[in-house]
Amino acid sequence: MRRLSTLAAVAAALACSVPLAAQTKGVTSGQKVPRLVIRNATMVDGNGTPARGPVDIVIENGKIADIVTLDPVAMRRGEGRRPAGDVQIDATGKFVIPGLINAHTHMQSNRSGQSMGGFEYYMLLELANGVTTVREVGAENEVQSIRMRDQQARGELVGPRILVYPMFGNGHVKTAADARARVQEMKKLGVDGIKILGIDRDLMRAMADEAHKVGLPIAHHVGVEETNAWDDIAFGVRSIEHWYGIPDAAIIDGRQHFPSTYNYLDETDRFRWAGRLWREADPTRLDSVLTAMVKGNVAWVPTLDIYEASRDLQRAQNQPWFKDYLHPSLANYFKPDPANHGSYFIGWSSTDEVYWKENYRLWMAALRSFERKGGLVGCGDDAGFIYQMYGYGLVREMELHAEAGFQPLKIIEHCTGNNAKILGREDDLGRVRAGFAADLLVVDGNPLEDIKALYPTNQVQLRDGKEVRTGLEWTIAGGVPYHVPTLAARIKAIVDSAKK
Hints:
The protein is of the alpha/beta class.
C-alpha cells in the first residue's frame, strides 16, 4: 500500500470513513445537535493568516472540537478517513470564517415610542448578518439586558451572545464619591463593563480608578467635552468609540473653531461641525495622540458606518434591504426629527456632504496610521440610528474598512479576533480554532474577494457566463446552526405584519 502523506495519516486516525463528496443533511435551523461537521470548507482563522482548505470542522457541545485538514488525493484513493457527525453541512467551494462580533450595538425593542414587537427583530437581524456576539453599550434597561444575556447563555433566547456595558451616568453622579458608588452598583448588577458619554475629568478619574479595582472595562463615547483621548490614555480606558476625542486632543488651541451661533444640543449644528473636526487636528500632535493610545493599550472602535449618511444622504436613505427588512418603527425614527437622536438631516446641504467626505478621508488615514503603529482596531455598527439597520450596519462597516485601505484578512480580524481582545474574550471567541466557541459562518462566496458575500440578501454574480447567487448561508452561534435564508424570511414576515 502506498505510504500515506502526513495529512492523510492524521485523517486516517479518525473514526469513520466518509466519501470526499459531501452534502448537507440532517441539519435543522435553530436545532442544536451533539455533533455537527462542516465538510470541505476553505477556512479563514480570524487571526489575520491566509485562508486554507479543504478542512472538516467538528463541533461538539457548542465548541470546536477538531479541525481536520484534508488531503483530497488521499481521500479519493480511499486512504483517508473523515470525522463522523450526527449531521453535516456541505461547505464545498464555500468559506468558513469566525462569527462576527459587534463591539458597539444597542439592543432595541422600540424606536420613537413605537414598538418593534420585542427584541426578536433585533436578534434575528444580527444572526442573519453573521453576528454571533454583541457588546451592548447603553441598554434600554440594564437589568433587562442582563436578564437577556443570561437567558441567551442558557439557550432560552434566540440571538447572539450578549455582553452588557450599561451607561454610567444615570443623573445622580455629581461627585467623585457618587462615581465610585455607581461603579460598585454596576458591579453588583453583574455588568460586563461600563459605557461612558460626556463626563468631567474629576468624575472620570474616580470612576476609572474604581472600575479598575473591580475589573470592569470601560468604553468611552468621548463627545465634545472636558475629557478627550489624553484622558482615556491616562485613565486606562479599554476602547474609544466612534472618533470624537482623538482629533480634539490634537487641536493646537484645544478647542474646535465653532461659530458663535453653535449649540451642541442642536444636533444639526453638532453633526454639521463634527464634519469639520478632523481638518483642524494638527498632524504632528495627532501622531503623538495615536502613538500614546497604542502605548496605553487603548483600542479604537471607529463605527465608520454610522456617520456615512452625512457624506451621502441619498445613498443612506435608499439601501436595497430597506424594502423587505426595514421595520416601519425604525423607518419612522430615521426621518429627520429633532426629537430623535441622530435624525439631524434638516437643511443638510451638498456643502455639508463635501466636508464630511474630507472628514472621512482624514479619519480613515488616522485609523490606518493607528494600526500601523500597533493599535487595536475593532468593529461596531451603532445601528438603530442614522439609516443603519442592525447587523447590516456591521457588514457595511467592514466594507468601509476596505475603503480605508485595510486588507480583507485584516478586516475579518478586526471584526472577530480583534473584537474578542477588546472584550477580553480572546481565549474563547473570535477564531476558528479547536477549543473555541463554535461561532462560525458558512459563506457561499469569497468574502476575501467581495465583502458583500456576508450580507444575508444574496448577491448575483456572473461566473462562466451564468448568474450565480452568493451570500451568507449559515450562522452557527454557540454550536446552533441557523439557516440564513430562513432567518431572512422570518424577519420579512415580522416587517410585513408590522406594515399591515
